[in-house]
């Protein structure tokens, strides 16, 4: 899709049996606002760092492909981004701390990858974020206090990771009253025989180490 001046503003490629990798030239669309490439398992390789040149981008959706490698830290330059959906790939490495620069984000979905390392404290800058889904990765470490700054959260999935600590900053914060869904590995609530890794009084769903999930306090 192009604007009236002929600039490309929208690219959507779904279920096209694409093969190969994303070219670095993807960054050559200065007015691109929406990039959606999904359900192309033959699309492999890493996300090129040149994606940071798409400074008009508001919606980034690269899902259900075969992408590998890490999320480039240069995504922190996409300051107009409102949604980042990179789920159901084979991405590895850390969640870049530069995501904390994207204060206009409404939705971040990174589930079902192999992302590792800690939950970046910089994500606490995302005070407008309503949807956060990091389910089914290999994140580890303590949940940072800064998560409590994310006061607009409504739907959260942090389960099926190795995170530890407490969700008290969320449960005692402004977001708690408006949470609709909150999944975490707080299994001791719903599965007393299986110690949970996370303390979470406001979670709606608690999961155990085997991925079984039940309503909190069931």
UniProtKB/TrEMBL annotation:
Coiled coil: none
Pfam families documented for this protein: LRR_1
Signal found in the keyword field: yes
Location(s), subcellular: Cell membrane; Endomembrane system; Membrane
Alphabetical keyword list: Cell membrane, Glycoprotein, Leucine-rich repeat, Membrane, Receptor, Repeat, Signal, Transmembrane, Transmembrane helix
GO cellular component, one term: plasma membrane
Domain of life of the organism encoding this protein: Eukaryota
Major subcellular site: membrane
UniProt cross-references to Gene3D superfamilies, sorted A to Z: Ribonuclease Inhibitor
Listed InterPro entries: Leu-rich_rpt, LRR_dom_sf
Name assigned to this protein: L domain-like protein
